[in-house]
Amino acid sequence: MTGVPLTEVEYRMWSEWVEDEYGLCFGPERRALLRARLEPRRAALGMESFEQLLFHVKLHPARDEERARLVPHLTNNESYFCREGGSLEVIRGEVLPALRERLGPSGELRVLSAACSTGEEAYTLAILARESDPGDRPRVRVTGMDVDPAALERARGGVYGEHAFRGTKPGFRERWFERDGERWKVRPELAAAVSFRAGNLVDPAWARGLPPQHLVLCRNVLIYFGPVGLKRAAQSLFDVLAPGGYLFLGHAESLRHVPLPFAFERRSGALFYRRPEADA
Length: 280
Prior knowledge:
The protein is an alpha/beta fold. It folds into two domains: 8-74, no CATH class; 85-274, Rossmann fold (3-Layer(aba) Sandwich). Helix content is 41%, strand content 20%. It has ten helices and ten strands. It has a seven-stranded mixed β-sheet with strand order 6-2-1-7-8-10-9. The chain has a three-stranded antiparallel β-sheet with strand order 3-5-4. Strand 9 and strand 10 (270-274) form a beta hairpin. Helix 2 (31-45) packs across helix 4 (63-74), helix 3 (50-59) crosses helix 4 (63-74) and helix 5 packs across helix 6 (120-132). The longest helix has 19 residues, at 85-103. It is globular, with a radius of gyration of 20 Å. The chain starts with 7 loop residues before the first helix and ends in a 6-residue tail after the last strand.
């Protein structure tokens, strides 16, 4: 190990603050990981201890900017196009047709990628909507939300390397992206259907100004949350869903112990939740 140690007191202070602020749980078995995540910022700022770094992040006049620099070290930004295909097939074959029938051709189908990272999932959802109905009726609007400003900047740029397409079928990349040197850029007609915004799942304010969403994906995020953060995030996801709306989590995630009136449904290759209808 290089650098300074993360003492027991510092570990408790940091783990409590990170869970309260971002919902992320760094239990005792992840203490070394927390230290490794914090070390680059401590070293970059030339601070002598992790306690000093915490005071800096919490109290410095430019703490918002410093937190923005710290967040990418705390979160996992692993993403790629067409991830977890079983869920996507259920969305394509069942969810989107049902929502289109409900909304009619003049409505607006609103889709949210919560904790969208660098944008692959949000663009995947826009592509899925276009491929399932090339006429785009009703109009589909996809929103990507994430706590990491650096990830959001990359998402808005819409430029990706070969690795991001490792889960796609032949022809996918050429159909929806155009060459940008050695990389690939989202085509303008696709980018026009997707927007991105900053937000923290454990802060209810993230959904302020966002209209009710008919389909929400929040995958492979809640697995890193502690019990308190999970309840806060689940409540905010419930609140942002339109009545009858669909919520897809990752395969390893569950809301079983969260006291919210979600209806749980299972399909071959996919699990999802629904918010009850308003008159239920």
